[in-house]
């Protein structure tokens, strides 16, 4: 449920403290950031957008966590990844 | 697994049954180009008008008049808003008609233009529309030789509708049909997809989304003529990917030719902004309309040549081979996803609706 | 796209698929439920099951807001929408959902003013622009979407906007999971937890699942690599005999959720004593209504509603599908009487409904499709 799309916060809208412009792949929309008032958002931050609201601030550090987890799977994973990349069928 | 296959076979039989219109009223889905449109056309129009020239339901018909075959087509334009980034209803109407003729392998020659105008419509807007029609006609080297005007009461139409007919001559004998695809053929799209539909969605401003997307509306007769000239015996099918997008067109081809079409997701050209709009609204670019892109099915042996020919034309600079034709399972479009999986790309029921879930 | 493309990498997927296959004990069958319809959509859209060994079986859960909305509520909404003074606003998802007598699309064709919006804030904009009309927002969704509705109502209250109201159908995921866990005919080995709901409610509310029901749960992101990783994490828990709530989606989901979102929901909405879920029946404390302080914005109090309960069609087995007891194709009417054109059950309506996803994307045997997709790969290279 609940389509959520990552977007980059570009700027805050002057007249509304809760509104900011978010960029998704070159596409811009005004988004309400009231749910993230605690987060100290700044332009350049990435947020998850759902129905016109920023629902969560995306953590750059944690975004690596999945890849760290995969690396942690050990040599067989790394070997297979290399083999697949080398064979150009990826 | 045997039981599952039995169920699937039963469904496939159901799908091939004669279509029936169940609704008591026309809904927007009937005009969206998907299953509901197909059903309406087959169960109401084809049922009433059935004849061998109409039956293939191609973009236009080849009729015999005098010496040689003449391509003949008609179309109506009801776009809202009338003016949008990259074009307006005027050049859309001319290009759309030209393209339908081009898809029959014909050189477009003459067009008609009928206008249904709403009481109160600004004459200045009408002049703007006719000016852009004239410019588009000049570019496509066609003449608008006849026309018609009707005015309806305020509220009975949305500003301005345009209907057209077009005739073209077939100079190079080719056999083009949605039923012409064969296993081993290659599927080519002439450029990045979905820009027209995305531009219109943004121009309506229902969703508060802004992006630098302009409609791809363009006349395709010249690039198609190049392709046919280069490969007169190896082009099987040409379709412009309008309503319902590339996915719908390919489903028509798969069904008519009794073949499978296998697409490679990572080969399908889509501009990043169109991807962005689609991600935000939960849409699939394969179903978003184009007005200046076409799908060509060509002999697989000559796919590289076809691609080079298309890329040599400015409208085909970003053309790409996006898939191939296989024998099984017939009637289906499959997508090999960038993630390495496979899924079915079916015909939509109605308009692709933006979703939040 | 950043935070998207890197999680759709086929090479990583294949390498991970190898590790997943290794983690399965031969002969053992693993059944995991992805609770959330968004996950179902991702699984089908990316053909994710092609990366899973035959030992791993994914069943699709009830986390699809439009799939669980009972027909009577759709009828009530259409009843409101038919009033000439009303503009009904709704997400696109709702438009095709059948009530007892037609859908929003049918009502629109018959003259009702029903408009699609991207955000509840857009409904508010329509209310401001049409002061002589009454604008109603058809609120659907789980805890992901409810805070947006709550924030919109708070805004409407601050502006004292008298012509705006909400027809509140927000539902909550935990009671639904509990209903599934209590269902006698279900055998699950673990859950793939809903990522975006968890961005709001956090991970703690799931702890009872691990503690009391001894089922592992991994809160998962929505990209295909997220889901594959979560499957690997679940298999890891089972292999090690652990039974915990883990968070795979740490880039988005804080362990404690979103405090502001929860408090906005708490302020504007209250728990309903019970609510009917399509296919699952009445579930206690499973949905939200507008709080008394915001009665002026509550369409249920602003308008007279028929409020009739409409029984699900007898032939429809959406309930069994939602609970994961039946695969979509095992339903008696699947694909014949019930198709995306003529949906009988809600699972066939939403593109994230299990039946529609299976019908549209997965209807054909995997062997057949994989064979067709493999052979022409080389020919497609320019």
From TrEMBL, chain A:
A GO term, aspect molecular function: iron ion binding
InterPro entries in UniProt: Hydrogenase_HupF/HypC
Domain of life: Bacteria
Gene3D superfamilies tied to this protein: 2.30.30.140
GO annotation, biological process: protein maturation
UniProt xrefs under Pfam families: HupF_HypC
NCBIfam families (UniProt xref): hypC_hupF
Family per record: Belongs to the HupF/HypC family.
Protein name, UniProt field: HypC/HybG/HupF family hydrogenase formation chaperone
Protein species of origin: Nonomuraea deserti
Taxonomic classification: Bacteria, Bacillati, Actinomycetota, Actinomycetes, Streptosporangiales
From TrEMBL, chain C:
Superkingdom in the source lineage: Bacteria
GO BP field: protein maturation
Pfam families to which the protein is assigned, alphabetical: HypD (PF01924)
UniProt KW keywords: Iron, Metal-binding
GO molecular function: 4 iron, 4 sulfur cluster binding; carbon monoxide binding; iron ion binding
Family note: Belongs to the HypD family.
Name this protein carries in UniProt: Hydrogenase formation protein HypD
Lineage per the UniProt record: Bacteria, Bacillati, Actinomycetota, Actinomycetes, Streptosporangiales
GN (gene name): hypD
């Amino acid at each position: 449920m609940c389509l959520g799309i990552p977007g980059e916060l570009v700027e805050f809208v002057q007249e509304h403290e809760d509104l900011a412009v978010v960029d998704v792949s070159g596409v811009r929309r005004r988004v309400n950031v009231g749910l993230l008032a605690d987060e100290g958002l700044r332009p350049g931050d990435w947020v998850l957008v759902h129905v016109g609201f920023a629902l969560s601030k995306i953590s750059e550090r944690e975004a690596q966590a999945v890849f760290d987890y995969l690396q942690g799977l050990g040599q067989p994973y790394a070997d297979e990844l290399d083999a697949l990349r080398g064979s150009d069928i990826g | 697994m045997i039981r599952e296959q039995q169920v699937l076979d039963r469904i496939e039989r159901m799908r091939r049954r004669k279509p029936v219109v169940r609704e008591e009223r026309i809904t927007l889905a009937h005009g969206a180009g998907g299953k509901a449109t197909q059903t309406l056309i087959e169960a109401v129009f084809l049922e009433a008008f059935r004849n061998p020239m109409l039956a293939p339901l191609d973009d236009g018909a080849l009729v015999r008049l005098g010496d040689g075959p003449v391509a003949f087509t008609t179309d109506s334009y009801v776009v809202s808003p009338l003016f949008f980034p990259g074009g307006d209803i005027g050049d859309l109407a001319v290009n759309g008609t030209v393209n339908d003729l081009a898809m029959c392998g014909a050189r477009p020659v003459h067009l008609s233009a009928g206008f249904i105008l709403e009481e109160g419509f600004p004459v200045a807007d009408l002049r703007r529309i006719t000016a852009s029609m004239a410019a588009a006609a000049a570019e496509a080297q066609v003449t608008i030789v006849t026309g018609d005007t009707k005015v309806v009461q305020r509220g009975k139409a949305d500003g301005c509708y345009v209907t057209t007919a077009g005739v073209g001559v077939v100079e190079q004998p080719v056999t083009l049909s949605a039923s012409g695809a064969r296993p081993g053929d290659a599927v080519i799209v002439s450029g990045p997809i979905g820009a027209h539909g995305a531009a219109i969605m943004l121009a309506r401003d229902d969703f508060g989304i802004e992006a630098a997307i302009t409609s791809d509306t363009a006349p395709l007769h010249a690039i198609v003529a190049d392709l046919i000239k280069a490969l007169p015996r190896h082009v099987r099918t040409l379709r412009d990917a309008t309503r319902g997008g590339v996915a719908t067109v390919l489903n028509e081809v798969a069904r008519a030719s009794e073949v499978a079409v296998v697409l490679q997701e990572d080969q399908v050209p889509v501009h990043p902004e169109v991807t962005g709009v689609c991600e935000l609204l939960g849409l699939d670019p394969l179903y978003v309309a184009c007005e200046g892109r076409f799908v060509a099915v060509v002999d697989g042996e000559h796919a590289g040549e076809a691609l080079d020919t298309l890329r040599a034309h400015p409208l085909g600079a970003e053309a790409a081979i996006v898939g191939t034709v296989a024998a099984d399972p017939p009637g289906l479009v499959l997508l090999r996803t960038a993630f390495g999986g496979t899924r079915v790309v079916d015909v939509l029921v109605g308009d692709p609706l933006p979703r939040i879930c | 796209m950043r935070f998207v493309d890197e999680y759709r990498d086929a090479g990583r997927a294949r390498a991970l698929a190898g590790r997943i296959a290794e983690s399965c004990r031969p002969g053992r069958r693993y059944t995991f439920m992805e609770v959330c319809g968004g996950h179902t959509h991702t699984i089908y859209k990316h053909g994710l099951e092609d990366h899973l060994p035959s030992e791993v079986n994914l069943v699709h859960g009830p986390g699809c807001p439009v799939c669980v909305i009972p027909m009577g509520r759709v009828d009530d909404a259409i009843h409101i929408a038919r009033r000439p003074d009303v503009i009904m606003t709704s997400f696109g998802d709702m438009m095709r959902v059948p009530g007892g007598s037609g859908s929003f699309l049918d009502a629109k064709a018959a003259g009702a003013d029903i408009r699609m919006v991207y955000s509840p804030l857009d409904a508010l904009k329509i209310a401001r622009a049409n002061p002589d009309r009454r604008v109603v927002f058809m609120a659907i969704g789980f805890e992901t979407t409810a805070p947006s509705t709550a924030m919109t109502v708070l805004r409407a209250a601050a502006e004292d906007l008298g012509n705006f109201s909400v027809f509140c159908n927000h539902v909550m995921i935990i009671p639904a999971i509990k209903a599934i866990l209590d269902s006698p005919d279900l055998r699950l080995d673990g859950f793939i937890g809903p990522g975006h709901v968890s961005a709001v409610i956090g991970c703690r509310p799931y702890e009872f699942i691990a503690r009391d029901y001894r089922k592992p749960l991994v809160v998962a992101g929505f990209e295909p690599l997220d889901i594959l990783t979560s499957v690997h994490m679940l298999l890891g828990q089972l292999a090690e005999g652990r039974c915990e709530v883990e968070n795979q989606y740490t880039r988005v989901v804080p362990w404690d959720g979103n405090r502001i979102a929860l408090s906005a929901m708490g302020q504007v909405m209250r728990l309903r004593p019970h609510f009917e879920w399509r296919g699952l029946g009445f579930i206690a404390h499973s949905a939200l209504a507008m709080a008394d302080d915001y009665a002026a914005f509550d369409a249920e109090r602003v308008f007279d509603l028929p409020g009739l309960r409409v029984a699900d069609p007898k032939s429809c087995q959406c309930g069994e599908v939602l609970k994961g007891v039946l695969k979509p194709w095992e339903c008696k009417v699947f694909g014949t009487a019930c198709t995306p054109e003529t949906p009988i059950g809600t699972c066939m309506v939403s593109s994230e409904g299990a039946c529609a996803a299976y019908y549209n994307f997965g209807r054909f045997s995997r062997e057949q499709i994989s064979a067709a997709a493999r052979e022409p790969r080389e020919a497609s290279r320019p």
